[in-house]
Amino acid sequence: MASSSQDQIFISYCRKDKRWLDDLHTHLQPYLRDGSLSAWSDEQIEPGSRWLEEIRAALAKTKVAVLLVTPDFLASDFIHENELTPILKEAESGGVIILWIHVRASAYKKSPLRNYQAVIDPIKPLAQMKADRDATWVKICEVIDKTINPR
Predict the structure, then answer these.
(1) Could you read off the pLDDT tens digit of each residue along the chain, which spans 151 residues?
(2) Is 8:58 a contact under the CB 8 Å cutoff?
(3) Which of 16, 32, 54, 106 could be 72's S-S partner, Cβ–Cβ 3.0 to 4.6 Å?
(4) Is residue 140 part of a domain?
């Protein structure tokens, strides 16, 4: 199933948390490979590109925003101003669905994300999981797929 121009997933994360992005990409790969999902992160910005324009263009094609929430994510002024604020604005108008994942313990209750249901229980962030982390990533990917491709 091919993706349309406005059903891609925008993945927002702090570069200090790249290992969590890598984990998400690993678990999403079967969905990406079969074409049922299309995902974008800043790793796709080519050298020499106008990076802020690339981010804005990707946001314009976004149906689902996946946010990897950590203290560094919430502390980033860049993410707050250039990714989170536009995502929240689109979510309020119904244009984007926010799927946020509490990766590391953070002050998410002091952010606008407190108003959105997290994909997993924020009381137990991914970083605190050991044995069941892969199973949780599988559940996260299933939620993303179900959100993009309702059956």
Answers:
(1) 344 444 689 999 999 999 999 999 999 999 999 988 889 988 877 778 788 888 888 888 899 999 999 999 999 999 999 999 999 999 999 889 999 999 999 999 999 999 999 999 999 999 999 889 999 999 999 999 999 988 7
(2) yes
(3) 16
(4) yes
